[in-house]
UniProtKB/TrEMBL annotation:
PANTHER family: OUTER MEMBRANE PROTEIN ASSEMBLY FACTOR BAMD, SOLUBLE LYTIC MUREIN TRANSGLYCOSYLASE-RELATED. Pfam families: YfiO (PF13525). It is a lipid-anchor. Part of the outer membrane protein assembly complex, which is involved in assembly and insertion of beta-barrel proteins into the outer membrane. The lineage of its organism: Bacteria, Pseudomonadati, Pseudomonadota, Magnetococcia, Magnetococcales. It is found in: Cell outer membrane. It comes from the Bacteria. Part of the Bam complex. Residues 31-227 form the Outer membrane lipoprotein BamD-like domain. This is Outer membrane protein assembly factor BamD. Coiled coil: none annotated. It comes from Magnetofaba australis IT-1. Belongs to the BamD family. GO terms for cellular component: Bam protein complex.
């Protein structure tokens, strides 16, 4: 092989390697100083460019792990991934922040956003409520660990909402059994709502008590039916169900499935909770925080 041919082959090999190492789709962030990268990332966050912001915050954290800006990047990663609806990533970032910085002033924020990311993956009361339980646990930690934090009030509202959602699932199953006249299974489910320390504080208890009254009458347990009517009247004298209770107990009336269904309420995720579902931006802190 001549020297000219060897030189030509070597040149072609170099061109091929260069082409492979810099494809048009490759996304490379310049090796910028951490403060510059953080500034660019926060600007992308303000502009709603959540994917770019997430990438830059992640690059900052990986390239400058000992920089004071890295902690701020970690907390902002939670929000950026939440906003781009990468909820599993947001949860992972939140858990990492909690593990690395349990005493940081923004630890409450990490707990709160972890709960919100879990809750955003909840579909409805007809599905498994494992995500709701995880969300409730995270919100409860905010309330218990950080009662004076900026996120405590929001966490308490969402905790109450999670408890309502879990109680609602019990009601969905209980209604299913009641409508199919599976009295014992329905009785157990409605009793779980009434007797639970958490669920008993929800408005769903009113329907659960009345349903237990109906079941007791169906089973010929007149004494139990009178007890449920008394508790219903004491706690919900002006409710929708109580006016139907005395005639039912005394055997002067009944209630159809359609009438009972019309009295039931469903969860309302209206405008009050809409702002929580949008997520909260982390507080504006200096790198030393």
């Amino acid at each position: 092989m001549t020297m000219t041919l060897r030189a030509l082959l070597a040149a072609l090999l170099l061109l091929t390697l260069a082409a492979c190492s810099s494809t048009p789709d490759e996304d490379v962030t310049p090796d910028l100083p951490p403060e510059t990268l953080y500034r660019q990332a926060t600007e992308a966050l303000k502009q709603g460019q959540y994917t770019n912001a997430s990438r830059m915050f992640s690059d900052l954290d990986q390239r400058h792990p000992f920089s004071p800006w890295a902690v701020r990047a970690q907390i902002n990663l939670i929000y950026a991934d939440f906003k781009r609806e990468e909820f599993a990533e947001a949860i992972s970032h939140a858990e990492r922040f909690i593990r690395l910085h349990p005493r940081h002033p923004e630890a409450a924020y990490a707990y709160y956003m972890r709960g919100l990311a879990h809750y955003r993956q909840v579909k409805d009361a007809y599905r498994d409520q494992d995500r709701t339980r995880k969300a409730a646990a995270a919100f409860r930690e905010v309330v218990n660990r950080f009662p004076t934090s900026d996120y405590a009030w929001e966490a308490k509202q969402m905790l109450d909402h999670c408890i309502y959602r879990m109680a609602e699932q019990e009601m969905v199953v209980a209604r299913y059994y009641l409508d199919r006249e599976n009295w014992l299974a329905a009785y157990n489910r409605f009793s779980a709502v009434v007797e639970s320390k958490e669920y008993s504080a929800t408005p769903l208890v009113e329907e659960a008590l009345f349903s237990l009254l109906v079941i007791a009458k169906k089973l010929g347990l007149d004494g139990e039916a009178r007890n449920y009517a008394a508790v219903l009247g004491h706690n919900f004298p002006n409710g929708r169900f109580y006016p139907l209770a005395p005639p039912l107990v005394e055997g002067r009336g009944g209630i159809s499935k359609s009438q009972l269904a019309s009295l039931r309420t469903e969860v309302d995720e209206g405008s009050f909770f809409a702002r929580f579902f949008e997520g909260l931006k982390p507080g504006v802190l200096t790198p030393g925080n």
